Amino acid sequence: MRTTLLAVTLLSALGLKTAWAAEDEWQITPRGFAGDLDLKRGYTGVNGSRTDADLVGIGCGIGYLTPMGVVVAAGLDGGGEYDLFGTFDSYSLDQRFVAVGYQFELGNGWRFVPMVGRTRWRLESEEGLLLNPGPEQRSVVTGYDYYWEASVSRRISRAVALGISYRQGDYQFGDSSATAFMVTIGL
């Protein structure tokens, strides 16, 4: 309770104004991201003792901004380790998500959007061709978990904003975090 009160007080003290728009807005947000997986021992799949992976990927979300500043979004993200022709053992993570947040308008076209969401994830580990004596194996694990995300962006035109976001979640398989470059297009 104290943390919430402190956050509201600080935001008010900084002079942030909310996104009280005259009308609602649909937003499409494609993104490209780089992320990190820290896996628990039971979820290393066919990759044995490897417990971390660096991912790159793309995704897209569609959101609805209400006149009160509340944002509701849904989308897809997919990322994997860079692997040339399946040569090495690799991980990939696909997510379908829904989220809710609040869009703070900071002035001069800048905006800050904190969000919380729920994702349906699919973690896949695949054995590579190099130094593999038998047929390649695959391991797939799926589940649902919560995450949080915060983004900062700036409008470059009436309908387009460029920004960055950071997403982090403590999932069943371990921790996942990603930093994304995003383009938000208002419709």
Summarize the structure.
The chain is 6% helix and 64% strand. The protein is mainly β and 187 residues long. The longest helix has 12 residues, at 2-13.
Beta percentage is: over 45%
Sequence of strands across the biggest β-sheet: 2-3-4-5-7-8-9-10
Rounded to an integer in angstroms, the radius of gyration calculated over CA atoms is 19 Å
Query: What is the chain-wise order of helices and strands?
Result: HEEEEEEEEEE
**Helical proportion, percent range:** under 10%
Number of helical stretches of at least 4 residues: 1
Oligomer: single chain
Unreliable residue stretches:
5-20
Outline the structure in words.
The structure is a single chain. With 187 residues, this protein is mainly beta. Helix content is 6%, strand content 64%. It has one helix and ten strands, in the order αββββββββββ. An eight-stranded antiparallel β-barrel has the order 2-3-4-5-7-8-9-10. The longest helix is centred in the N-terminal third of the chain and has 12 residues, at 2-13. The radius of gyration is 19 Å and the shape is elongated. The two termini are 37 Å apart.
